[in-house]
TrEMBL record:
Keywords: Nucleus. The lineage of its organism: Eukaryota, Viridiplantae, Streptophyta, Embryophyta, Tracheophyta. Belongs to the SAAL1 family. This is ARM repeat superfamily protein. The keyword Cell division does not apply.
Length: 488
């Protein structure tokens, strides 16, 4: 594709220089960059995103944004956000040229192409070098369109996946604050993207900058309101991932944000979300909601290990009831990871509240009953090795959780004055499960060794799944652990 010739600065149709709030056009005389797309084409797309003139809109929008972030204005955070949003809209309607018709379609097509291209590191770095972030910031300031905001945030989200562009996002004055301000939006796709961008920011090396931009109680109140009132599964998932990113951030970020979130009712909100998702799971099986349930449990689990804030969860009888309900659900192999998270949560609760051991002993038994019923369907000697790998991978990846559950079951039995050894005439569900795990791991190990001895390609079906860290040592460790508890 031929490189289109452009002047150094964008000019209006009448020959006047472009508005001063626009960033200068990037230089396209030299392209010392390795991309799979013509650099001139990328620059032409960036130029097509330049917004129309919007005199004074930058100042007015900035003032409204500051009111939301600092809490100036109404005493209630939600009312302040609504008020400022109305003021912003009034300013834009009065002073900004609307983009519609053919111009709107051209802008959207160009933005979507850049959204796709920004997923590649070399393209992303080239885009940032050529002022795409300044152009996107100008669009936030001038254009009043949910679709425009969604596309801008989508591009920024992809840029944030790469180290250099993510640092440039921080360096672009006013951009982080403008992104955070988009939480006042009522548009679901826009909120999905802004949650994704901030989550990526909190997972980066400049996470403290993002935390400082988020620390206003009004903004945190708005975040919790979005999570509590969202109906779209993707928005629920991404907004809870936002919370998880905060909880799993370095201590400096946790200290800035978590105390306020706890004060605003975060633990109770997470329990309500768990209750809601379990209610759906018990009525119907909606595949797209499994990941929502899993991220909620992961967030509760992460919060349960923070010493200063775990007590509110461990003292919740409602949480214990919900965890027991999840574990007791029959025929739920598709949410097996959720059951594992529930077991870990029970272990964490036991460490904080030993007095609930008797109550949780039935849940522990139920967990092993569920696992026993799932593994009973596995006939390792009659299935393809690739299928067996899936079970072995699941077991090995969760070996720490299995070991913890075994330790906790001993603790529960001890507190309940029960005999910790497995010596009853009728094997317990735990014994049945452990024996099945032993058989599966032993069969897998023998089959793997036999195929390797026969000279079969080790990268064929029997090769361990590297992403799951499944290897001989891990399998052997889990195998020995199960044998130990069966022999107790």
């Amino acid at each position: 594709m031929a490189v289109e010739s452009h002047s150094a600065t964008p000019e209006a149709a009448d020959g006047d220089q472009a508005p001063s709030h626009h960033p200068p056009a990037p230089c396209d005389e030299l392209f010392d960059v390795s991309t799979t797309v013509d650099p001139g084409y990328i620059i032409s797309l960036i130029r097509k995103l330049l917004p129309p003139d919007g005199k004074n809109s930058n100042k007015s929008d900035h003032a409204s944004k500051e009111a939301v972030l600092t809490g100036v204005g109404e005493s209630d955070g939600m009312e302040t956000a609504d008020y400022c949003g109305q003021q912003c809209q009034r300013v834009r309607n009065d002073q900004c040229e609307a983009v519609n018709g053919a111009d709107s379609k051209l802008w959207e097509e160009s933005g979507c192409i850049l959204w796709d291209l920004s997923a590649t590191r070399t393209h992303a770095e080239f885009m940032v070098e050529n002022l795409v972030l300044e152009v996107l910031l100008a669009n936030f300031t001038v254009l009043n369109s949910d679709r425009v905001k969604e596309i801008c945030l989508g591009i920024i989200g992809n840029l944030a996946c790469h180290d250099l562009p993510r640092k440039q996002i921080i360096s672009t004055k006013g951009l982080v604050e403008m992104i955070v301000y988009q939480l006042v939006s009522d548009d679901t796709p826009c909120l999905c993207e802004v949650c994704r961008v901030i989550t990526l920011g909190l997972q980066g090396t400049d996470c403290v900058t993002w935390a400082e931009a988020l620390q206003s109680e009004n903004i945190l109140t708005r975040l919790l309101w979005i999570i509590e009132n969202a109906l779209n599964p993707l928005l629920i998932e991404r907004s809870v991932q936002f919370l998880l990113a905060i909880i799993e951030s370095p201590q400096e970020v946790v200290s800035i944000l978590l105390p306020s979130l706890i004060k605003l009712g975060l633990p109770n909100l997470l329990i309500k979300l768990l209750d809601f998702e379990l209610g759906i799971l018990m009525k119907e099986r909606v595949t797209e909601r499994y990941s929502v349930l899993e991220i909620i449990l992961s967030t509760i689990e992460a919060l349960s290990v923070i010493d200063d804030h775990s007590q509110e969860l461990s003292s919740s009888k409602e949480l214990v009831r919900l965890l027991c309900t999840l574990i007791k659900l029959p025929d739920k192999f598709e949410v097996a990871n959720c059951c594992v998270s529930a077991a870990v949560l029970i272990a964490n609760i036991l460490s904080d509240a030993v007095d609930v051991a008797l109550e949780l002993s039935t849940a522990s038994s139920a967990l092993w009953t569920v696992l026993a019923s799932i593994l009973a369907k596995v006939e390792e000697s009659e299935m393809m090795m690739s299928s067996l790998h899936k079970y072995v991978s699941l077991l090995v990846n969760n070996s720490d959780h299995i070991e913890d559950s075994l330790l906790d079951s001993q603790s529960v039995e001890s507190h309940a004055n029960m005999e910790p050894s497995i010596s009853s005439f009728k094997p317990s569900a735990k014994t049945i499960t452990l024996r099945k795990i032993i058989n599966m791991l032993s069969y897998w190990t023998a089959a793997r060794e036999e195929n390797l001895d026969d000279g079969e390609d080790p990268n064929h079906e029997v090769e361990p799944i590297r992403e799951c860290k499944e290897n001989k040592e891990n399998v052997h460790r889990l195998l020995e652990c199960c044998r130990k508890y069966v022999q107790l």
